[in-house]
Structures are given as structure tokens and as C-alpha cells.
Design a protein that fits this description.
- The chain contains nine helices and six strands; from the N terminus they run ααβαβααααβααβββ.
- By secondary structure, the protein is an alpha/beta fold.
- The strands form two sheets. It has a four-stranded parallel β-sheet, sandwiched between helices. A two-stranded antiparallel sheet has the order 5-6.
- A hairpin with a 5-residue loop joins strand 5 and strand 6.
- It is globular, with a radius of gyration of 17 Å.
């Protein structure tokens, strides 16, 4: 999908139709597969996509479909604040080399040790039908989308998960996929 093809109204209508379908919500037709879905969009359309996700969530909730929305950027900020690291990183970022900042953030936001448990906690506390994950572009390259999805297979497979991804989602001839 390129920037010219992005039609917010059409995409909203399509997503409402797909996500509200009983087959989608009840994971019918998935034979042993994890119910994870990627909704790619042009990175230049982030603001429009954020608006679309809010509208989508509101439309679905009016239909009685509960949505748990986790923004990876907000989650990362929350985790850094909880550990008292956010202000330290912000102060030191100006004087630290980029590689050191990268390594520090990647360690403090390790998906297996911090992101997955935080998401699992939110899932456990929520009564939802579908999980939305946004914010992957804002946390790249410290947190990688494929790493999040791989780590969530054990904690987020009871309900469909939709990741809104700024970029392309490709299927290869060998059956693999790439973000």
C-alpha cells in the first residue's frame, strides 16, 4: 500500500467488517495458527492511522466488541518511568554516544524481560475480545515488531491480535513473512 492508496474511510470500513466478524473473533479456520494479524500502512500516514485506530476501537465497542489497545511507545515510557530511568536517559542522551543510548534502551526495554510481562499483565487484567498493538514505529529500533510478536505467542493467543505496522508486510515464496 503506497501513500496514494491509503483511504482512511475504506480501510476503516474494511477493518470493522473483518474484526467484527464472528469467524475472526472466534478464530475459526485457524488450524494451530496464532491469531496474529498485521495491518500495514504507509509510515507517512501515522497521524491518520492513529485517528483510524481510535475510530475503529470506538466503532467496535459500540458493537459490543471490547478492545484492549496497547501502544508500545506509551508502554515503553511507562516502563522507563516506573524504574526511574526515563529522566536519567533523557539527561544522558545529549552527552552519550548513539550506540550507548541504543544499547541502554534496548536493555531497559528488553522484550522478553519487560515488554512481554507488561503486556501479559494488561491482558490478564482486561476483559477484551481483540488486542490492538500500535506504536511500533515510534519504538523502532529499540523494540522490534517481530520480536514483540514472537514473544507474545505464549501470552496473547486466546484472542485475535492486530498489530498496526508502519511499513510493508511481505510474504515470501518460501512461506515466510517479513516486516
Amino acid at each position: 500500500m503506497n501513500n496514494k492508496e491509503f483511504n482512511k474511510k475504506e480501510l476503516l470500513d474494511k477493518l470493522v467488517k473483518v474484526i467484527s466478524d464472528d469467524s475472526f473473533l472466534n478464530q475459526k479456520g485457524l488450524i494451530g495458527e496464532v491469531p496474529f494479524y498485521i495491518c500495514p500502512f504507509p509510515p507517512g500516514k501515522l497521524t491518520q492511522m492513529n485517528d483510524l485506530v481510535k475510530l475503529l476501537k470506538n466503532n467496535l465497542e459500540r458493537m459490543g466488541i471490547r478492545v484492549l489497545h496497547i501502544d508500545l511507545y506509551d508502554l515503553a515510557i511507562d516502563l522507563l518511568e516506573e524504574r526511574g530511568s526515563l529522566q536519567k536517559i533523557l539527561k544522558r542522551e545529549l552527552t552519550m554516544e548513539k550506540d550507548l543510548v541504543f544499547d541502554a534502551l534496548q536493555g531497559m526495554l528488553n522484550v522478553e524481560n519487560y515488554i512481554r510481562p507488561a503486556i501479559a499483565n494488561r491482558i490478564e487484567r482486561s476483559d477484551h475480545h481483540v488486542l490492538f498493538i500500535t506504536g511500533s514505529g515510534q519504538v523502532f529500533p529499540y523494540i522490534r515488531s517481530h520480536t514483540v510478536l514472537n514473544n507474545l505467542q505464549s501470552v496473547a493467543s486466546d484472542h485475535p491480535l492486530v498489530m498496526f505496522f508502519p511499513g510493508e508486510y511481505r510474504h515470501s515464496e518460501s512461506g515466510g513473512t517479513s516486516l
